[in-house]
């Protein structure tokens, strides 16, 4: 069985550039990203949603049991909330987010897998 996202809805979907979670832009604006909100601060900021999420993503993984899913471990989403995740997301987080991650000792890996080619 294949899940189909209606075209009218898919244009409204965005993926977080940091964790790959897929939500509508309104969900990101009203609720933030449940995995990355502390760093990205998307809630109540349409500008931040636009700069820290992307409409250009490939593949969708349904994360139902993140801690026990080998696919989510492979995608580096096993510590995140249940939800729909993009396999690849085109784009990079803004420089201030990269700096914040660096200051916290977290290595940033773009979700477009470009860092895997190093």
From TrEMBL:
Its main location: nucleus. InterPro entries: RPABC4/Spt4 (IPR029040), Spt4 (IPR009287), Spt4/RpoE2_Znf (IPR022800), Spt4_sf (IPR038510). Residues 13-90 form the Spt4/RpoE2 zinc finger domain. The keyword Protein biosynthesis applies. CDD domains: Spt4. Keywords: Centromere, Elongation factor, Nucleus, Protein biosynthesis, Transcription. It is found in: Chromosome, Centromere; Nucleus. It holds the Pfam family Spt4. GO terms for molecular function: translation elongation factor activity. The SPT4-SPT5 complex mediates both activation and inhibition of transcription elongation, and plays a role in pre-mRNA processing. This complex seems to be important for the stability of the RNA polymerase II elongation machinery on the chromatin template but not for the inherent ability of this machinery to translocate down the gene. Belongs to the SPT4 family. This is Transcription elongation factor SPT4. It comes from Marasmiellus scandens.
